[in-house]
Amino acid sequence: MIKYYTRACNFIYGNLAKKKIKSRQALPLCGNNLIAFSSVEIFIRNKNKVINKVINIQKIESLNPKLKIKIKKDIKIITSKRKSFLKNINFSKISIMGILNLTPDSFSDGGKYSSKAKAYKRIAQMIKQGAKIIDVGGESTRPGSKTINAEREWGRIKETIQNFKKNYKFALLSVDTRKSTVIQKSIEAGADIINDVSGFNFDKDSLKIILKNNIPKVIHHMQGTPNTMQNKPKYNNVLLDIYDFFEKTINNTDKRKIIIDPGIGFGKNLKHNLTLISKISLFHSLGFPILVGTSRKRFISQISGLNDSKERIGGTVASILYLLSQGVQIFRVHDVNEIKQSILVFEKILMNK
Fold it and tell me: Band of the pLDDT at 133, cuts 50, 70, 90?
């Protein structure tokens, strides 16, 4: 069976984007007339064989009828404004999700915020620095990590989750968990988002609870489990395989309040990660906001070698600014202030055209 995919490309920004849209030389990305695209990359997949070509949007009418119908349908989705379903979040603007790991063994900051006082101080700091969402986790999902039981995980995050809304009224609470019992308790405590790195494949009851409560959800891609995911991950085509995963998962749910995350570093080698980052705009044709977490990830050290550093801020900033230029809406980060600063400067330059 032949399948077609559409990726917006050749982006234009700021006042020039507005002019190109007005003259019909470009189209708005996700309803935002400050980012436009003048071409699309078309992928044609026949079993495991993939061919691709880039064409200007003005040449779409010259495509064969079947392909033209599909590409036009995708473009309608790509250009549509993303519906706002999170309080105080506008998907036409960049939002930062600050990471709070209440674990002793996370890859970057394990044990750093495990005390109540340190956790609360860190949340307040990230919100002040510009994080609109705080993602709280009680189980490490670093490569090679082992699963812990739900009781231990909930014990680590319980107090922070239950007191979050009392202390931080205007921030959104995201809970990073794979377990239905933790999800249920988090929702009861006022969680705004559930972020499950397994894509709701770890616990069959998780998605049922989320759908019952109509809670926004991050559909995250991971190949394997945290314990096995970096054991020689393989794909037929990493970009299109993950697109197909999202499409299937979305079709099996209610298609409401969805954010998608391709899972950089979760069952991917360096080439996989670079392919996903460089072609991230393919996922706009699914019609949902995109969340990406590249913060301090191992691929940065694989590229930088002797120039690696503990926080990997340089590599994190570089990847985020590229992703921003491709229309990604949410970034999950450790170093909120540095990322906010880089986004403010980059956007000012980008839009001054």
Answer: very high
How far apart are the C-alpha atoms of 278 and 290, rounded to whole Å? 14
95-351 is a CATH 3.40.228.10 domain: no
Name the token pair of 233: 């991950």
Residue 323 makes CB contacts below 8 A (sequence gap 6+) with 277, 280, 292, 294, 331
Q: What is the mean pLDDT of residues 319-344?
A: 98
Structure-block tokens of residue 241: 């395989």
Which residues have CB under 8 Å from 20's CB, separation 6+?
12, 26, 36, 38
Q: pLDDT digit string (tens) for 191-224?
A: 999 999 999 999 999 999 999 999 999 999 999 7
Catalytic annotation, pick one of 20, 45, 178, 297: 297
Residue 230 tokens read as: 């970096």
Query: Strands 32-46 and 2-13, how do they pair?
Result: antiparallel
Structure tokens that stand for 51 in this block: 């061919």
60-69 residue pLDDT tens: 999 999 999 9
Give the start-to-end residue ranges of the domains of the chain.
2-79, 95-351
CA dihedral (279, 142, 233, 150) positive or negative: negative
Residue 332 annotated as catalytic: yes
d(C-alpha 302, C-alpha 293), whole Å:
17
pTM listed for this prediction: 0.94
297 belongs to the catalytic site: yes
* H-state helical runs in the chain: 14-22, 65-79, 116-129, 150-167, 180-188, 206-213, 238-251, 270-278, 298-304, 313-325, 336-351
Among the listed residues 156, 312, 332, 340, the single catalytic one is 332
| For residue 152, pLDDT beyond 80 | yes
Residue 233 contacts residue 223 (beta carbons within 8 Å): yes
Give 329: exposed, middle or buried? Use CB within 10 Å, 0-12, 13-18, 19+: buried
